[in-house]
Structures are given as C-alpha cells and as structure tokens.
Amino acid sequence: MRYVSTRGQAPTLNFSQALLAGLAEDGGLYIPQTWPQLSADEFRQLRGLSYPELAAKIIGLFTGNDIPQPVLLDLCQQSYAGFNHKAIVPLIQLEHNLFVQELFHGPTLAFKDMAMQLLGRLFDYVLSQKGQRINIVGATSGDTGSAAIEAFKDSKYLTVTILHPYGRTSEVQRRQMTTVLSSNINNIAVEGSFDDCQDLVKAMFADASFRDEVQLSAVNSINWGRIAAQVPYYIYAALALGAPDREVSFTVPTGNFGNILAAWTAKKMGLPINVLCVASNHNDILTRFILNNDMSIQGVKPSLSPSMDIQISSNFERLLFELLNRDANQCRQIMQDFRKNGKMDIPDLLWNKAKESFKGLALSDEETKTVIQNCYNDSLYLADPHTAIGIATAQKYRSKDVPMITVATAHPAKFPDALKQATGILPPLPLALADLYDRKENYQILPADLQKIENSVRAVILKNNF
Ligand SMILES: *Cc1c(COP(=O)(O)O)cnc(C)c1O
C-alpha cells in the first residue's frame, strides 16, 4: 500500500513512512493511492471476530507489508486490553432504530484513545525496526494531549512535548496530562490561548534547523495512521446491525473532520452506508458547507463541547481531493486560496456530490443542554455534550428503515458541569481514574516564546539521553 499527498508535490511513501511523517512535505495530507475493497462476502466473514481481531484485519489493509499481520494483531490486542468495557466499543440502543456506539472506554475517556493507543505501539514498533528516535510536539485544547501522553508514556524511542493553554483546559483534562510523570513526557502550560499553542507548534516545524536537530514528528489527526485506526469500529457496528445485507447510517460529532473521514473511508471500502451526518456546535464551518456551500472561516467561540471548537477542519482536504477526482493541482490551488481568502471556493457540482453522502446539523449550547436532559428523561442515557449534539443530529436525519448509529466521543464524567446543569446528576469517574484529583502533577508554565519552548524540548531530549 502506497500513500500520495493531496497536493501532489511530495514523495509517495509506504505506511510506516507516512506514519512517521504525519504531514506531507508539500503541506498536503497523505491518502492511500487506492482504496482497499471488501466484497459483501468478505464483510460477512468478519462477523464473528472480536474487536481487536477485526481491527487487525482492517488496519492490515492499510499497513500492507510494513507490519507483519501477527505483529499487528498482537499490537491491536494490547491496545484495547486496558479498556474499561469488555465489548471495547459497546452499542447501546436509545430508541427504535437509533443507537449509540460508545468509543470512550479507553484510559482518557475520549474516542482519541481508539487510535492513539495503537499509534503509540505502531510508532515504537516502526522506530525499533529502523533503529530511529524522534520527538513529538503537539498542541491541545484537552483530549488529544492526554490521549497522546497516555499512549506514548512508556516509549524508549521518543519524547512527547504537549503545549496546552494555561488555565483554559478543564481540570480533568489538565490532570490527565500532568499526572503522567514518565521522564519522556513534557507538559508545558503556555501563557496564551490554544491558537498560540498551535502557532508555536507550527513555528517549531517551520524552524528547519530545529526540526532537523531534534527529529520532530506530530500525531495530530492529519496523521493517516489515526484515520486508519478509526475505520474498524464503523465496520464492527454495521456488521452487528445487519451489514452488508442491510444499510446503516452514522452520525459523528466532528471538529477536524477526522473521525467522520474514517466512516467515509469505510464507505469507500464497500460498507453499505446510507448517510453520514456531521454534528457541530456553534463553530459550524462544516455544517455551513454542507447546508449552504459556505466554507468560510469565522472566529472560534468557546462552547460546552470544546473538542469541536475548531475554525479549520484539516481533514476536509482529503475529501476535497477525492471530490476533485484526485486532481492534486486543483486541490493545492483551492487550499492555498482558502488560506489567503479565509473562504473556500468549491464548485457547486462538487458540493452537490458531497451532499449525496453527507448531512449536517449545528446546535447551540442551550439546545445541547436540552438534548442531554431529554436523553436522560427519555432513555436514562447520560450523554456528554459532544455526544448529545450527535444524538440530536441522528434524530433529525434517521429514516424508518435504516439503523442510525451515533458515535459517543467522550465519557459524561469528562464534562461534569454540563451534565450537572442539565440533569442534576454528577457522573462518577470510572474506577481507574477515581484518584485523579489526588495524584501529583508536573508541568512548567512558560510564556508564548518560541526560544523558551524549543529549549524545553531540548531539555527533555537531554534528560532521556537521546
Ligand atoms: C476530538 C474530538 C472530537 C472531534 O473529532 P474530529 O476527529 O476532530 O472530528 C469530538 N468529540 C470529542 C470528545 C473529541 O475529543
């Protein structure tokens, strides 16, 4: 399996190279050269598999010869062994033909663990094979940082520096990052906003001499490895509800368009998916596109569902590339104009094509709280704010004959304030995290100053004798 850049000016890579590279050199995103295909019979043969077995089969179609299949199976089994639920991705029925697939039973209680737990192990395997070491830097508004730290905390082959905005993440989110005391983990609270953190990460990648000096790498959701690791749960849920002999639909609470791109990938592979619904909060660039062909950047306003507070949905570029019949020149041009003008010009023909697969809905914070309350009253289900937006979207777009599945992206205990306000109930943290508030924290507070941040990355590398 080979990977090409959506902008057509970077070398074609195999899976492990694309994994370590993250972003392509030309600013594009790596995407498989061709989509692996499964026939109806091949889907039927997957029906009896456990989640890790299914995951290894599906992800194996993307890793090709890079990772031997028995190794991949072993890594998948390890990745999901620490989950708090025996089913790993349990399917819960809320209403007739309306289901929730819970993706939050991993160590940090958000769906990011589904991919990140495997990514940590894949990085270690590939780096140990190549005898290479790298250093990961990333910015987080909460969930990505904790999932990455949890997944990479025991690696001998890499260090992880995560920047979070000082005082602007929830306490649960901060503690999940800062109570991991491994020597290869470096937490920095930046005196600034999430955008400042992201700008500092971009500045480190743009600083060529620093980038080469420290072998920089990234694990944000533009990494194809993360998308690949998110495809299996869509197939697993669909098989449980009758696919491939019956269509299913999915709703995905989305920010960076990563998770829903994985669902769309499953459709490309042959899974009979009827519609894919994008669920947004008031930062609604994606739903504005789907409903009105309006892909214009507006300022980010904080919401009850902070993991979807995003201005630009990076992974959309992969869909665009495909809508353009893989014309990389045109894709590059549209993306460059988008950066310049803050608005993406998408021909109506392509927009209509996108609308055949995607629906969208955006909810305000007030509406979100009402949905949380109604879900609890109607089905005794406690949904976190991200999932609640998904449930409302699923209710709007479901049809009589096709099962609709919303993916639940965070555990309700991650957002205690919103849950308390909406239902009067304070959902308890799972046992594994019950002592989170008593654990010792370690992080440094630094100004948004590139030199100081780079020196901190150098210090953690030195400490680990790389
Ligand atoms: C990251 C995240 C999302 C958004 O996922 P994308 O892949 O960026 O679309 C939604 N909900 C939660 C809880 C998240 O952590």
Can you describe this structure?
It is globular and about 60 Å long. It has a domain at 87-109 and 224-423: Rossmann fold, CATH 3.40.50.1100. It is 46% helix and 16% strand. The protein has a six-stranded mixed sheet, sandwiched between helices. Strands 9-6-7-8-16 form a five-stranded parallel sheet, with helices on both faces. It contains 19 helices and 16 strands. It is α/β, with parallel strands linked by helices and 466 residues long. Helix 10 (224-240) crosses helix 11 (258-268) and helix 16 (365-379) packs across helix 18. It binds pyridoxal-5'-phosphate. Residues 110, 112, 143, 221, 253-259, 307-308, 386, 409-410 line the site of pyridoxal-5'-phosphate.
Properties at a glance:
5-stranded parallel β-sheet, 6-stranded mixed β-sheet, alpha/beta, binds pyridoxal-5'-phosphate, Rossmann fold, 16 strands, 19 helices, 466 residues
